[in-house]
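Quick one: co-fold with zinc ion.
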Amino acid sequence: MLFRGGQTITSSGLSPAAVRVAGTTISEVGSDLNPQPGETVVDATGRWLLPGAIDGHTHFGMPLAGGLSSLDWAASSTAALLGGTTTVIDFANPDAGESLSAAVGRWRNLADGHTLCDYGLHVTVTDTSPERLAEIPGLISAGLPTFKGFLAYKNRLMLTLEQMRSLMTAVHEHGGMLLVHAEDGEMNAAAEHVLLNTGRTAPVWHPLAHPAESELKAVGEVLALAAETHCPLTIVHLSLTDSVDALKRARQTAGESATLIGEVCLHHLFADEGLYSSGHETALAAICSPPLRPAANGPGLLAELAAGNLDFLSTDHCEFCLAAKAAAAAGGFAGVPNGCGGVGERLVMSYTKAVVTGDLSLPRWQEVLCERPAALLGLADRKGRLSPGCDADIVLFDPTPEYRWDPLGASDRAGSLWAGLMVRGRVSDVWLRGRQVVAGGRVTDDRAGGVFLPRQL
Ligand SMILES: [Zn+2]
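Sure, here it is.
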């Protein structure tokens, strides 16, 4: 199969290129490839060929206490494909007392046979007993080299600094990487306690339970632990420019040999805390942690992403039906499941709000959506690039149309912060490992053909 007539994004910008696919992988890329006898030709005239994008941070079908869960793998992965994302890395979260490998098995069961896109799993660690830490080397050899620890969510997921130190030591010892949610669980709990005790329970108060100082304190602490343990670290969803400043200082001190990575998420770039006072339903949809921040942070974070001080752009996609969030809100914001959607919006929204505006160059846009997350999270050999030998995950992107955004996927998706915004550009067609799955903006193959991807750092 030969894609011709389109342009690819190279380090210097757009360039005419053809891409040949043999079976499930890319076999040739060049400017002067001609069709072979009998070969299928895809006319990409007027469109750009992008590698299938990688979302390094999603929560599809995440079960919560009380039987609630975020939208399932079928619905969420459909949104991913329609949005040009062919690979996500989700999180296996163990229940209390459950082994890490049992949690991975449970997540594989949620995804396999249901997901339309490919996926990998980060493994959340909430119990740092010797028995749990002993599982780490086996998981790394099974293609699960990235772990997640929380300084947030007291009494649920939070690790103490002592536990975080043990986890980082173990992950480093066996060659893995740790992802950290850096907010101070104690500080958030204290802020929440004051709000609830003074009757401030409506969704509009949610951000006040997540003060900026809480993120800054936790970022500082986890960077200090990384310096001490030498554990490769990704701080996920950095939401404040002050946090990025702390990361930059730590990199300077640590030097080239340290791995200190900063992730930023779509909603922290392009939405702000004004949504919490834009009506009850909008506020509910915007409940996530860290919360949306004051408006000045978004452009600041975008500048850091453009400059290379933030490394890749994810979504933390974790979408709940509005009805579920509303029901949970009856008892106050503290009971509302945290998370919002974005996996379907990431390409188009970032193109509209960062590339069209001139804030992010085209090569950097492609890098932070595709090549960097693949390279940093252990998929460098097969995802994120249009290069011979890589999986034939190919997106045709039409940069011209201008229209009002309609959320993708199921009709009851209400976590969308993006509905009704004017956008530029459209994902028209998508191939996953050589098989067309989206044509003309519609899913044409809804077989749950996504596979688990073992990763290696
Ligand atoms: Zn998350």
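If it helps, The mean pLDDT is 95.
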